[in-house]
Amino acid sequence: MNLPDYRTINLLMAAVCAGLIAVAVFYFQNHLGLEPCYLCITQRVFVIAAGVIFLLAGLHNPATKGRKIYAALVAATAAIGGFFSIKQLWLQNLPEDKVPACGPPVDYLFDAFSASEAISMLLRGDGNCAEVQWQLLGLSMPGWVLLSFIGFIAVAVFQFLRR
């Protein structure tokens, strides 16, 4: 069985990341009207970052050492993104009396606070992040994004170990 080459897999994964973001923006946000919470936005940033690394790896198509570096960068990016997915799943499973208060909209954050303060608030999440707005097969959106990050890590490990 012939597996796709290094470049093809990276370009395909970049397309998967672009597709995930397109679905998030055009379907969930624009069509269904679901506003992303702070942690949703943070997870999107890490999906985009993984996609950019996959794209760069595919375009660059480096030798062995470079391939390992790109794979490690994707794995690290996906692991950090996965942390924020887990954090949101944790918030969604808190008892109602333990859920933190809701914060202001994201647009307001960047208008009223410095960039570092706004980013700090995005990384913490708030009560909006605890609301389950959508589910498929019993998994909420951060659960599906976590599965995506796990898939990215699996591909990165494969790319790291392949000859």
Concise description?
With 163 residues, this protein is mainly α. The protein contains six helices and two strands; from the N terminus they run H-H-H-H-H-E-E-H.
Word description of this protein:
The structure is a single chain. The chain has 163 residues and is mainly alpha-helical. The chain has one domain (6-161): Bromodomain-like (Up-down Bundle). It has 6 helices and 2 strands. It has helices spanning 6-31, 38-60, 64-92, 106-112, 115-124, 141-161, and strands at residues 135-136, 139-140. Strands 1-2 form a two-stranded antiparallel ribbon. β1 (135-136) and β2 (139-140) form a beta hairpin.
Assigned CATH superfamily: DsbB-like
Q: Taking strands numbered 1, 2, ... along the chain, how are they ordered across the largest sheet?
A: 1-2
- Just name the CATH architecture: Up-down Bundle
Q: How many runs of DSSP E, i.e. beta strands? A: 2
CATH class: Mainly Alpha
Overall pLDDT score: 86
Quote the CATH topology.
Bromodomain-like
| Oligomeric assembly | single chain
Number of domains: 1
Number of helices: 6
Gyration radius over CA = 17 Å
